[in-house]
Specification:
An eight-stranded parallel barrel has the order 1-2-3-4-5-6-7-8, surrounded by eight helices. It is globular, with a radius of gyration of 17 Å. It has helices at 14-24, 37-46, 65-74, 87-96, 123-135, 148-157, 167-171, 174-193, 225-234, 236-246, and strands spanning 8-12, 51-55, 79-83, 100-103, 139-144, 161-165, 197-201, 218-223. With 249 residues, it is α/β, with parallel strands linked by helices. It is built from ten helices and eight strands. The protein starts with 7 loop residues before the first strand and ends with a helix. Helix 4 (87-96) links the parallel strand 3 (79-83) and strand 4.
Length: 249
């Protein structure tokens, strides 16, 4: 039997900036401001990450505009920018030109992105954004819950990827966890059948990530908080290498 390739790992470095902003919110450009998201991106790539992910939020609570420019200059794999569908953020992204963009829902009240994007309900608003990004040579992913109608709408929009929201699975227990995993498995198969490549992420950690092997056609996982948390005790290089080891099927 031919061994399956390892699942690609995109390391989300938002919480490196969160730590910096805790002390340097009013002066993120200070020479004293640390830690550096750019340096974190370089370390993560050196440890084997296949991509770097960052979310430029409307309220700039962690990643700043200057971070995106600096990270794009040093990333040698690919930069995946998460963003809400807003004109201001879109213009910044078009100037930076990351390889990938993942459109996500965004609320100022949430600590982290909660729930998938309502592609069905926002179809007409998303259509010009997807077209503009693709015309600029940027691949588009949509962060969605594993629901048939959201997957079908994503395919109809012409996105290259969907990123299945794994938060409900990560937060569940017992029979409910099995149910959520089954939803992800079915969603992945459905997306692939409609011509979409499949990524996944949210709430994944060193304990639950191997369950993602059950998802057929899975290309990449985007993981941030767990890796950055682990890095506090073992260092970022080791934390990324440990996660990479878990993704070898």
């Amino acid at each position: 039997m031919t061994a399956l390739p390892p699942i690609a790992l995109g390391v989300n470095i938002d919480h490196v900036a969160t730590l910096r902003q805790a002390r340097y919110r009013e002066m993120p450009d200070s020479s004293n401001a640390e830690p550096s998201p750019k340096e974190a991106a370089e370390i993560a790539e050196g440890a084997g990450a296949e991509g770097i992910t960052a979310h430029l939020r409307m309220d700039r609570r962690h990643i700043q505009d200057a971070d995106i420019v600096a990270i794009k200059q040093v990333v040698r794999t690919k930069l995946n920018l998460e963003l809400g569908n807003t004109p201001e953020i879109l213009q910044i992204v078009l100037a930076v030109k990351p390889e990938d963009v993942c459109l996500v829902p965004e609320s100022r009240e949430e600590v982290s992105t909660e729930g998938g994007l309502d592609v069905t309900g926002q179809f007409e608003a998303l259509k010009p954004t997807v077209a503009t990004l693709q015309e600029a040579g940027i691949r588009v992913s949509l962060f969605i819950d594993p629901e048939d109608h959201q997957i079908a709408a994503s395919a109809k929009l012409g996105a290259e990827f969907v990123e299945l929201h794994t938060g409900a699975f990560a937060n569940a227990a017992g029979a409910e966890k099995d149910h959520e995993l089954t939803r992800l498995i079915r969603g992945s198969a459905h997306a692939h059948a409609l011509g979409l490549a499949v990524n996944a992420g949210h709430g994944l950690n060193y304990q639950n990530v191997r369950a993602m092997f059950e998802l057929p056609h899975l290309v990449e996982l985007n993981i941030g908080h767990s890796i950055i948390s682990r890095a506090v005790t073992v260092g970022l290089d080791a934390a990324v290498r440990e996660m990479k080891a878990l993704l070898r099927r």
